[in-house]
Amino acid sequence: MGTVRASPGNGPDPDVMVERTRHADGTERITLHSAALRPLRLPVEVALGTDLADLGAIAAGRAGPELPASVHDSGLRWSSAGGSTSVTADPPPTDALASAGLLRWEFDLPPGGTASVELRVQVDGAGPVRAAGRAATSPLAPARATGDHPGVRRFLHTSVEDLHSLLLRDPAYPADTHLAAGVPWRCGMAPADALTAARMTLPLGTRLAAGTLRTLARTQLQGTGPQSGMIPGPRRDAGPHLPPSCTGTEATLLFPTLLAEARRWGLSRQETEELLPTAERCLAWLRTTVADGTYLCDPHPGGPVRCETQAHAHRAALLGADLLDAYGRKGGAELRQWAQQLRTAFREDFWVEDRGGGRPAAARAPDGRRMPQLGAAAAHLLDTGLLGGGDLAPGLLDRVQTEQLARLLGSPALDSGWGVRGLGVKEAGYNPFGHRAGAVRVQETAVAVAGLAAAGYEKEVGSLLRGVLAAAEAFGHRLPEMYAGEQRTDGSAPSPHPAACHPSATAAAAGVLLLTTLAGLRPDAPAGTVTLRPVRSAPLGEIVLTGLWVGGAPFSVRVSRLGLAMVEEAADGLQLRS
Q: Mind telling me which Gene3D superfamilies this protein's record contains (predicted)?
C-alpha cells in the first residue's frame, strides 16, 4: 500500500491510496482509492524491464544487461536466446513506449472512487507442468507428531505443508505428482532431488514415489549408446576439491532403490511390475558402465570415483537384485557379486589412515590418488537401504570403519551444532556459506541421523537431531535447503544462506525422515510385517507419530521416554517383528 497527495492545498494528508496485490501466477493488480472531495484526473505510469537472466545467474547475483522491449498486444515484450516474456495490461494502456519500457494511463476518479489496472506476465514457451494444488486426494498422508519436545508438532506439520506446496503434475498424466526442487530458484523437476525427497517421505505413503517414478521413467534415455538407460539430469557443483557431478548418475541409481523400498512400504504389485523394466534398464546401465571394472566414475567416463557415488551404486545393486529376484527376473546374482567386489575393494582403496583413526576418502582421482577431504557426503556410506524382513543391506564400510565415521560425524569438525557441515572446518577451502564447502545441507544431516541410528550410534543421533530442531525453530520451523555451518554458541542463531531454496523439497522431506527415524520403522508389506528399531536413548523424550501410512493403511506409533516403541494403529493383519 502506498499513498499520494493528489489535491493541492490539502495539507500533509494523502488523499489517494495505491494498493498493489501481486500473485504467484504472474498477475498484479494496481488499484487507486480516492479519498478526495473533488474529482481527480490521475496519470499512472508503470516502468517495466528485464534481463531474462537464468535463475542460476540470479541466485549468484550476476545481473545481465537490460533487454530492449517491443510493443506487443496490450503491453510490452522482451526476447532473448532463451525465450521471450510479455506483459499485458487490462485495460490497455493509452500509451506504450517500448524504448523506455513504459505503460501509461489517465484515470478519472470521482470523489471516493476507485480505478484498477491488471498486469499479467506470460513466459512464452513455458512447459506444461503445473502446480498440483490441494487436490481432494493428496499423495501424502496427513502425518502428525506430538511429544515431550515442544517443537516436533510444528516441525512435522510445516514439513508436510511445504511438501504439499511443492507438488507438481504434468497435465498429460494428471495422476502423477512429483515435487519441485524448491522455491524460488528451482521450481521445476530436479530428478535426483525428486527421487530423494520421495524416498524420505515413504512413511507418508507410496503415491508420491509412484508418481515420481512414472514421471522419470518417461524421461529415461533409450537406444544403444553409453547413456542408454540413464535418467538424465544436469551437472551440479561438488565443492572446492572436485569437478561438478552428474545428477543423472545419482537419479539413475536412486530409481531402482526407491522402487524396491516403495514395494516394502506398500506399493502394489501391479505398479511395481509396471515400473520394473525402467529399473532393469537403470541396473543394466550400471553394469555396462562399470563393465569389467570395480568402481563407477562420475561423470563417466574419465571422472573421479566419488565416495557417495559408490554408496549409491552399491545400494542400487543390492536392492535391485532383491527386486529382480522377487519378480523372477535374471541378473540378481551378478549384481550381488559385483557389490561384494565393490565392498572388498572400497574398504581398502577408500580408507585414509591418519593419527585420528582414519577417514573415508571423498574420492579417488583419475590417477588413483585418494582425496582425503572430510565432508558430509561420507554420511551416504551409512545409508545402505532396506531389504526384506526388516533387514538393512550391508554397507561399504566394515564395523571398525563405521564406528570411526560415526565419531567423525559427531565431531566438532563436522557437527556445527545446527547439523552436519558439507566440509570439515579444518579442510582447505572450508567456507561456512559454501554450498558443498561447509554449509549445512539439511538432506545430508537427515541421512547422517538415519544412518547413525541404524548403526546404533545414538549419542551422535541425539546431538545432530537436537541441533537441526533448534535450527528449525530459528527458521520458524521451516527448514531451508541449507544454512551457514558456523559453530553454534549460546544465544546464537543459524545464519541463512542467501541462495537457499526455502521451502525446499529435500529439506521438507528430511523433516519426515528425522522424526520417523526415532521409531525405526522397517516395513515389509509383501510379507505383511513391520519391524521397529527405535532410538533407545529417546533423545527427544516421548514422541507419538500418527497418520503415517504403512502397507496401504494408516499407521501410528508411540516411542516412550524409555525408548520403547508401541504400535497404536496399523493395517489389519500387519504383524510386528521383534
A: 1.50.10.10
Question: Looking up cell 504439499, which residue turns up?
Answer: 164
For the segment 235-262, the average pLDDT, to the nearest whole number, is: 95
pTM above 0.85, yes or no: yes
**Average pLDDT score over residue span 57-76:** 81
What's the CA gap between 363 and 242, in Å, rounded?
8
* pLDDT at site 126: 53
Cβ–Cβ under 8 Å, residues 117 and 89: yes
pLDDT(220) > 70: yes
**pLDDT at residue 216 is higher than 70:** yes
C-alpha cell at 289: 558402465
Please state whether the peptide bond connecting residue 8 to the residue before it is cis, i.e. omega within 30 degrees of 0: no
Task: Report the relative pairing of strands 575-577 and 529-532 from DSSP bridges.
Answer: parallel
Write the DSSP symbol of residue 504.
Answer: B
- At 124 the pLDDT is 77
Residue 456 has pLDDT above 50, yes or no: yes
Comparing 2-123 with 130-577, is the CATH topology the same? no
Given CA atoms 203, 206, 209, 211 in this order, what sign does their dihedral have? negative
Q: Cα separation of 480 and 478, whole Å?
A: 6
For domain 130-577, the question of CATH label 3.40.50.1820 is answered with: no
Helices 442-455 and 191-200 cross at an angle (nearest 10°) of 40
Among left, alpha and beta (phi > 0; psi -120 to 50; other), residue 233 is beta
Place of cell 494502456: 93
Helix, strand, coil shares of the chain as percentages rounded to 5? Answer: 35, 25, 40
Tell me what pLDDT residue 35 has.
Answer: 86
The rounded distance, in Å, linking the Cα atoms of 164 and 116 is 33
In this predicted structure, the answer to whether residue 9 has a pLDDT above a threshold of 50 is yes
pLDDT at 136 exceeding the cut of 50: no
Domain ranges of the chain: 2-123, 130-577
Q: Which three cell numbers stand for residue 322?
A: 532383491
Which CATH class, in words, describes the domain spanning 2-123?
mainly beta
Q: CB of 76 within 8 A of CB of 96?
A: yes
